[in-house]
């Protein structure tokens, strides 16, 4: 049974793990949330690369034979550095997300040439331009929009109660209106941050209210499909149990434990605290 | 001329420095924003103490003879550790803020015994209970309210344009309504985070809309008054120039530089990047 390492700056990457557990259930999983040093989204490329490489090394030491960078910011800014530092296969979230956009665009009425992808992401991810470069290379037009308030809103859980969703819907409306001013013909919406899948129902409501339907692409799902293609063999008889899932965090175990199950959509086993320095 | 070190996890402490420059202008200032490791508000006591002590040591190496911990979270969770590790006087923001509440309460119609202080702060600060302990020791009742969305809203600058302030006002209304349910007789409001002074006009509007007037206390101002009492002598003839203000950050110079002047309310000289590890 293959051991797959999954890395994120926090627990957002659990939305990627959730898709992996569904598509590649017969594997061991070691998850690391670098919670002592999050958020990566507001930090520089050098700092993010340093953090990500030390986290990748830790997961390889735990036996990971394949590593999923389940963090858009770390993928966008440090994928090359991580690949250079490691000798195991590394899968990021940007390329699979872009490929899923291409598939959606080619099936759309506008076709690939007429499609325009709107990428919602953190400030650091949009600043890197990684999604635009990757999407452009596939023949797709792209506009990136930084949405710094969305991660705090998701982490506060302002997603359910009416008084809270009113705020979250208004923030989404403001961001989408600003973005659609730049990209009025956008027809594909890429969720370029692992926190955003939790916002999908509210995003759908917002797009409906704006009378601007778009095809929503979740990088997490696309990434899990890429990993499924890399892990040899189909599902074995012996499906991995919860003992084959180990969770590490560098800090804030309490918050990880509390919010993690909302991202994973199942109870989280006890999270182990480790110190990567810093 | 005395050298005063001012430390915060980011640029929020610049609201404290602003008050210091007004009250103690004839001093050299060395400011450190530990931006590579922010936010402290969501991290554990151990991690915060480790970060704060290494930052304090750096400022002492730069010649600081007095150190201001211009960060509520670092003061609430690590003041004892910083004092134990350093041989220079250390001023935090919690005790001065609490003292200012006492002064306001004693002048209020309710008096000290009838007053009730509502403390707005980060999750880590409220979890520490430092403000409640300090206020209770002064004979004041206190209720603390964690407001995790306020720092992101301030950092995004959602404070001016109408479409943005509508969101910020609604978030403030939700937080204050929740807090006043716990403390319906609160008559003093303490801004327990260095970002919050930038919200003061919107807070005043919210309190007015809720028909619940309160005396707003800013820890930054109270802290500067305490420092003024500790620095011997009045204002010298030679007022320090901008050459006597040095700014360091551990990352995100760009953001520090961009937002810093809004907090300091004057242009910021170039910020120097340093590496404290991690």
Provide structural commentary.
The structure is a homodimer of 278-residue chains. Chain A has 278 residues and is α/β, with parallel strands linked by helices. The first copy, chain A, has 2 domains: 3-92 and 222-273, Rossmann fold (3-Layer(aba) Sandwich); 94-219, Rossmann fold, CATH 3.40.50.1860. In chain A, 48% of the residues lie in helices and 16% in strands. Chain A is built from 12 helices and 10 strands. Chain A has a 6-stranded parallel β-sheet with strand order 4-3-1-2-9-10, sandwiched between helices. A 4-stranded parallel β-sheet of chain A has the order 6-5-7-8, with helices on both faces. In chain A, helix 1 (14-23) packs across helix 11 (219-230), helix 2 packs across helix 3 and helix 4 packs across helix 11. The radius of gyration of chain A is 18 Å and the shape is globular. The interface between A and B is medium-sized, with 29 and 29 residues.
């Amino acid at each position: 049974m293959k051991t797959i390492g999954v890395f994120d700056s926090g627990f957002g990457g659990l939305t990627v793990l959730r898709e992996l557990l569904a598509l590649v259930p017969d594997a061991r999983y070691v998850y690391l949330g670098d919670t002592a040093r999050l958020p990566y989204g507001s930090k520089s490329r050098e700092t993010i690369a340093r953090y990500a490489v030390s986290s990748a090394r830790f997961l390889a030491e735990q036996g990971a034979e394949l590593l999923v960078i389940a963090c858009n910011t770390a993928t966008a800014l440090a994928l090359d550095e991580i690949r250079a530092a490691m000798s195991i296969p590394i899968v990021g979230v940007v390329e699979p997300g872009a490929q899923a956009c291409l598939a959606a665009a080619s099936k759309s009425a506008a076709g690939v040439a007429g499609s325009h992808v709107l990428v919602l992401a953190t400030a650091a991810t949009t600043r890197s331009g990684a999604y635009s470069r990757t999407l452009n290379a596939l023949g797709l037009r792209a506009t990136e929009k930084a949405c710094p308030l969305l991660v705090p809103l998701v982490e506060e859980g302002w997603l359910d109660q009416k008084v809270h969703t009113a705020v979250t819907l208004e923030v989404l409306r403001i961001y989408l209106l600003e973005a659609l001013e730049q990209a009025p013909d956008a027809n594909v919406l890429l969720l370029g941050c692992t926190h955003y899948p939790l916002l999908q129902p509210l995003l759908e409501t917002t797009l409906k209210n704006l009378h601007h339907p778009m095809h929503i692409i979740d990088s997490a799902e696309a990434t899990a499909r890429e990993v499924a293609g890399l892990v040899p063999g189909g599902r074995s008889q012996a499906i991995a149990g919860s003992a084959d899932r180990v969770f590490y965090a560098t800090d804030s175990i309490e918050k990880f434990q509390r919010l993690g199950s909302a991202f994973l959509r199942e109870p989280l086993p006890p999270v182990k605290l480790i110190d990567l320095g810093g």
